[in-house]
Amino acid sequence: MLRGLQIQIPLTSVCTLKCVTCIRGTNLKYLPLYQSVGDFKRIIDRLADLEKPVRNIDLTCIIGETSQDKDLLEKLEILEHAGHILSYDFVTNLVPHKNVDIVDIITSSKYKKMAPIFVSVYGTDKKTYVEYTKTNEQTWQVFNRNLERLLDKTFSKSTRKLNLYFRYDNYSEKANDRVFSKINILSQMGKLNVDDSTAKSNYDWAGRHPDIKYLAPIPHQTGICLHAVEQNCIWPNGDVSQCGMIDYNKEMIKGNIFEDSLDLFFKNKMHKLCEGCREYEMAME
Fold first, then answer.
1. What's the CA gap between 21 and 212, in Å, rounded?
2. Residue 230 pLDDT > 80, yes or no?
3. Which of 54, 113, 59, 58 is nearest to 87 (CA)?
4. How much is the CA Rg of the chain, to the nearest whole Å?
5. What pTM did the predictor assign?
6. Which end of the chain is more exposed for a tag (fewer CB within 10 A), N or C?
């Protein structure tokens, strides 16, 4: 039995970072993409017709940055007022659209349904950050300033736990830095989790990412596959894919949520493309 329905809804393909482990350089049929407020609300309203509430909406943009969506606030309000949506979350790199204050969003008590948020740290100093993200000092300053603000607000006011993903340097190597001293304190307080297990690497999802750097084998995990079996992905045009991690060329489309019966979706068996993925045991219903 599934543990509860999760659905991924990528909002945009816009991202100011050009990380060496990102798949954006490959030929992706879904680029560019943008989820309008109207279509987002149509999708959320459509999900109300499901027999059970949706346990979680994942707004992570696998080929973009969630906080680069200029309409993010409106979409969060839609989720907050949707009784059939129990929670939502996303991964962010803290380099947002100019109209989005991502730190205020993450630390605000206004968003009752927001689950702990995941923050990607692509370098623990200016040199490594710019090298890894292929950006510049200005982008580094935006990230570093937002990270410090986020840590300070989490310490002083926020009750929402943080999760930090260290994508480049190992966390332990920089533990004495001022920022990382704050991280240590928050971790000891139970307000923050740190994960550097995939530092300077990226998973080769089912062999679909042959061109990116630092590929790493996917560690085997037991249980239901988070993506292909348990979590469908709804693209901005309404296409429902069985997996948002590898189906960038529309090979796992099950139908369109605006046009087809909901009976077609969210009841997955292992797809043939899953055979190359070793992350999970493919649990069947």
1. 5
2. no
3. 113
4. 19
5. 0.86
6. N
